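Give me the fold.
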Amino acid sequence: MRGLTGAIRVDQTSGMDAWDTTPFANDSASDWLDELVAGGTIAMVDEAIDAVLGCGDDPVEETTGEEGIAAAEVTAWLYGRPGKSAEDTEALEDWIDDQELDEDDGRLRRARKAVDRVFNEPSELREAWEEAGEFEDWRKSLADLKDRLKDVE
């Protein structure tokens, strides 16, 4: 899936291929999403979130961060809180329709923690957005995602 917003921006320093600051608008997240909707299960979402949370104090690698953010975005969609996307999300919507979720599984809380972990240092993805000069737009995108991951009161 390629972004509908135009040209792909490639940051030569980090190797990051992104065309927008939204969660699915980079090669790693797009590939991960393609795999998910082609036959992945909810476990794949949990695994991407757990990979970020499992970094502890070590740097979150760029690809791990991109996939974790994509998984957090899918989590928001699963709970009826989709965000803006430059991508064609019809396949994701179809995949979501086929999922059965446990009501109290802590997924929203874990996804929110993963977003925080990718945003905070040490994070290669954060560094890549800082170096690309689009950190503020990326920060706003993550803040929106975190808001949509708040537990329903």
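Residues 1-14 have pLDDT under 50 and may be disordered.
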